[in-house]
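Record minuted for completeness.

…
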Amino acid sequence: MLSKVQGGVCMRHGAKRKLCSSEGCTNMVVQGGVCKRHGAKRKLCSSEGCTNIVVQGGVCKRHGAKVKLCSWEGCTTQVRQGGVCVRHGAQKKRCSSEGCTNVVVQDGVCRRHGAKVKLCSSTSSGPPGG
C-alpha cells in the first residue's frame, strides 16, 4: 500500500523525501536538515530536571500543559469524544453494513464495504516520466 506523503502525492508519483545532510546518512530530516541521530533536537519541558517532550506552552502534561479531562466525576482520563473518555462512553463509529464491526473510515462504512481512501493525488499509475 502506498502512503500519502508531502504535497498530496506518494513517493512513487514524485514526492521528494528530504534526507539527513550528514554524509552517508539515509534517515529522514527531522529538524535543521538533520535526523535525530545527527543532532535534531525535540523541545523538552522547561521545568527544571524534566526530560519530557513539550506539549503546550513550553511544558509537558505533568508540568501544566492543558489537556481536556473526562467530565465523569472523579475521572482523570483524557477526553476522546463528547467530553468523556472511552471508559465512560466515548465510542468509535462502526460500519453501517449489517453484521460488520469495523471502524468507519468514510461515509458510514469501513474500507471493506466501500470507503475509498485517498492515497495519492497523482492521476498516473506509474512513476513520473514513464
